[in-house]
Amino acid sequence: MQRLVAFYNDVMAEMRKVTWPDIPQVRQLSIGVIILSLFIGGLIALMDVILQQVLVRWIPSLFGG
């Protein structure tokens, strides 16, 4: 039980050292993550369309299909 109390006190001491972001920082970083996710999703969608064209349409036409 003594170890558990010591662990809790250590955790609380470390949590007091943490510098928490303020609301504008959280908002700015969240928007950045959303924009980056949409950008990467768009790239994946573009790659999907291009590869679909290559693999489904162009390659069979090369072999007379």
Describe the structure.
With 65 residues, the protein is an all-alpha fold. It has one domain (20-65). It has two helices and no strands. The protein has helices at residues 2-17, 23-62. The longest helix is centred in the middle third of the chain and has 40 residues, at 23-62. The mean pLDDT is 92.
Summarize the structure.
The protein has 65 residues and is mostly helical. The chain has helices at residues 2-17, 23-62.
Annotation keywords:
65 residues, mainly alpha
Share in helix: over 70%
Q: What is the count of DSSP helices, taking H or I runs of 4+ residues? A: 2
Radius of gyration: 26 Å
The biggest beta sheet is recorded as: none
Counted beta strands: 0
Q: Span between N and C termini?
A: 75 Å
Proportion in β-strands: under 5%
N to C succession of SSEs: HH
Number of domains: 1
